[in-house]
Write a structure and sequence with these properties.
73% of the residues lie in helices and 1% in strands. The protein contains 19 helices and 2 strands. The chain has one domain (2-402).
Length: 416
């Protein structure tokens, strides 16, 4: 039923147009509502805060001084509480200094207008890249990934930006490898999401892409060192160690995470076992990339595997990172008709819908309950998204082993 419903959308130009217009209108409504809400009440309200609030604080600290203090959780907590005027939800700051440079100009705008600019630009970029990759499958991918796109807009996160960058890596991998490498290099802002794409470039010997990515990383690192001082790197590494201890203690919203670590940890495994489970899953994800390069039905399909595997390397991956997987589904769809039965395709669509919607639905449920019950249930709510993605990857790997034939590595003549 799900397969027939979704694929009927892409089969009819009229239905595609209607669904695309409706979804884009809903996304615009979410963006407009949140911008108005932030305009009326600030980035903090009702004890809640958008993730974008942290971006804005860091942007301001770049010009006020003391940027390295944002990488200390205690100091950054004080900054967030001071900006909120009291107790509020807080988040640690573990982004590389390159992301600090990216958000620096936002300090010159008020919170609501900075949010509107950042989110609108990244949303437009993501939708344009996704439309280029998906072509006639654009409506189908939008339906499946609407929840993740919506929650990314609502909290002002950067998942749309990273999704657009990975999309650019895939679009330009063959004909414009230097441009593909530049996009890959910019992914230094969230390097754990670029590992699979980097491995793909090495396996396919795209040395010009590897070189251009390395130039971007090295140059941006030198700029950060000159702008913030060499101590910024010590502060960043310290924040990563501190965040790892918080992850081990389960202090994050693990039910919204989509990693194997979160799924196993919330299922009751000790942190050490969950960590090793994550390492096994990361290894299997990279094996799937290598398998897709060697045996995939097309290079486009291999790049789709790369995008799906990107969010499965690190234990720290949230539902707002799923737009990258949307790029992966768009790349995979042309080959799924020959590789998979309708029931198998429906299973993939259903699992991806579950991973997309689960965190959003659970967040809504917990916010409707009283504060004490919510605090307890956040630790007990299963992290289903991670399990769903693990099954998706297993199905894709099985298809490669079962059906696919060795494929040429080059993408010449293909839309991607």
């Amino acid at each position: 039923m799900l397969t027939a419903t979704l694929e009927q959308i892409q089969a009819s130009p009229r239905k595609r147009t209607i669904y695309v217009c409706v979804i884009l209108a809903l996304l615009a409504a979410v963006l407009g509502f949140k911008a108005f809400r932030f305009f009326a009440g600030g980035l903090w309200y009702g004890g809640q805060t958008a993730d974008f609030a942290a971006f804005h604080i860091v942007a301001q600290r770049i010009w006020l001084g003391g940027l390295d203090l944002t990488y200390q959780f205690a100091s950054f907590t004080e900054m967030q509480m001071e900006a909120a005027g009291g107790a509020t939800d807080v988040m640690p700051w573990t982004y590389p200094p390159q992301f600090d440079l990216l958000v620096a100009p936002l300090a010159f705008l008020q919170g609501w207008s900075a949010y509107l600019l950042f989110t609108a630009v990244t949303l437009a970029a993501y939708l344009m890249v996704l439309r280029t990759v998906a072509a006639n499958n654009f409506a189908l991918v939008l339906v499946v990934f609407f929840p993740a796109i919506a929650i990314t807009i609502a909290i002002g996160q950067n998942g749309l930006l990273t999704g657009a960058l990975i999309g650019l890596v895939c679009i330009n991998a063959e004909r414009r490898p230097v441009l593909s490498g530049l996009a890959l290099g910019i992914m230094v802002i969230k390097p754990h999401l670029a590992v699979a794409a980097g491995v793909y470039m090495l396996l396919t010997r795209r040395w010009s892409a590897v070189l251009s990515a390395a130039i971007v990383v090295i140059t941006s690192s030198l700029v950060c060192t000159l702008a913030f001082g060499p101590q910024i790197w010590v502060a960043w590494l310290g924040s990563i160690r501190e965040a790892a201890s918080y992850l081990e203690d389960g202090r994050y919203q693990l039910f919204r995470m989509i990693s194997a670590y979160a799924a196993l940890y919330n299922a009751g495994l000790p942190a050490a076992w969950a960590f090793w489970g994550q390492m096994v899953m990361a290894a299997l994800a990279l094996v799937a990339v290598a398998l897709a390069v060697a045996r995939g039905p097309s290079p486009r399909f291999a790049l789709g595997i790369v995008a799906v595997a990107s969010v499965m390397i690190s234990p720290y991956a949230y539902d707002y990172d799923l737009p990258i997987v949307g790029i992966g589904l768009a790349l995979l769809l042309p080959d799924l008709a020959s590789l998979a039965s309708p029931r198998e395709r429906g299973t993939i669509y259903g699992l991806l819908l579950l991973a997309n919607a689960y965190g959003l639905l659970q967040s809504a449920r917990l916010s409707a309950e009283n504060a004490h019950a919510s605090d307890l249930e956040r630790f007990m709510t299963p992290a289903v998204g991670g399990f769903a993605l693990m099954v998706v990857l297993a199905i894709l790997a099985w298809w490669l082993l079962r059906e696919a034939k060795p494929a040429a590595i080059r993408l010449r003549g293909e839309a991607a």
